[in-house]
């Protein structure tokens, strides 16, 4: 039994290393296959086996959370790992002789992932199998079924590979091999030929400003004015040629909450941004943090027009648990947990995720929101032609979160069929094309302005129309049908 637990840990670590920043995506299939080869013989052993597998995968992949709150990291890692423990119990309830075992396993573990995408704390869709495949040939399948379908495919291929070891006849073995080969060959083609939008014949010359500065710093330990100065310095260095007719900028994007003031509309920072918008003759999308009251603050992206007026505003809806708000704050304070690093909670917004600037509609997902496919799609439903992800990864030591965010941006660009602009104060900033290619990626802590002509696009993908719910319903119905069929077969 101890050997099986060791196998679970190794399998989980293989998946962890398939994730960015390591990014060895084929290891995800190896890890799933290794996990699926073991069949503990009791529900308790199955639960422990599945939990240890997921913990070895999620603990490294979610290590960024440790730097925000150690208690939150431990709670989240154990809770989400336990979901896969329950999935392993359900899978193990099927006997080895059940011909559909290799399908039930992927369904249960995909549903476990679907649950943690949304519950608790609003969901924590990091360190996911979908993120691990952002650079793989099958990533375009998200145009059809989003991250859940991609997750299921990775699990299904892994379970099919594992079934080769346990097949009873050469015919069953060949059938499993055939299914695996068909999946690997057909899925990339399906994703490539699926609808993915089209150019509308117009482009924007977009500048993303990364001010630079140290990593691993918290807002409570940082002089907010220093951050503004870095971004002003970077913006002022934009070459004069960029304002000519040939290279004129159409839009400038500053990262999430680089301006931290009581009220932006009456601040000196607004005056400074206005001056740059007038100099470059281009509207700015600026990330601001404002005081709401003694308990809350707001996190928003605001349009500053070339004439100095303020345009649209979008307040962040999805907040980072244990980063921008503390779940169970009262309970954690009562047991002495350190929550003073987040003294106030962000107040969630309720607006549609779009901004109007540069004579077009822009879908905006602020930082954490890029990990949620539905948030990006909300703007596309409103006719957005471009996707923008202003973010702030400066609070995190290392690059686990930042590199997973780039991978998530690739998935969102594929799912929506739009160009995506990601901009961060300390990295990573980049442009991502509708086919998931990354351009002009910056380094960590460097001061840099990246500029690119991006095509505005219209149209929607299959996933944009369907969302996640149809796939969740199909998976639940399929799982119940297979479990009932297996029970009848056993009783017979």
TrEMBL record:
Domain CN hydrolase: 204-456
Compartment annotation: Cell membrane
Transmembrane segment boundaries: 6-35, 47-67, 73-94, 114-135, 141-164, 176-194, 462-485
Annotated keywords: Acyltransferase, Cell membrane, Membrane, Transferase, Transmembrane, Transmembrane helix
Membrane topology classification: Multi-pass membrane protein
Predominant location: membrane
Stored Gene3D superfamilies: Carbon-nitrogen hydrolase (3.60.110.10)
Keyword flag Coiled coil: no
Name recorded for this polypeptide: Unannotated protein
Organism: freshwater metagenome
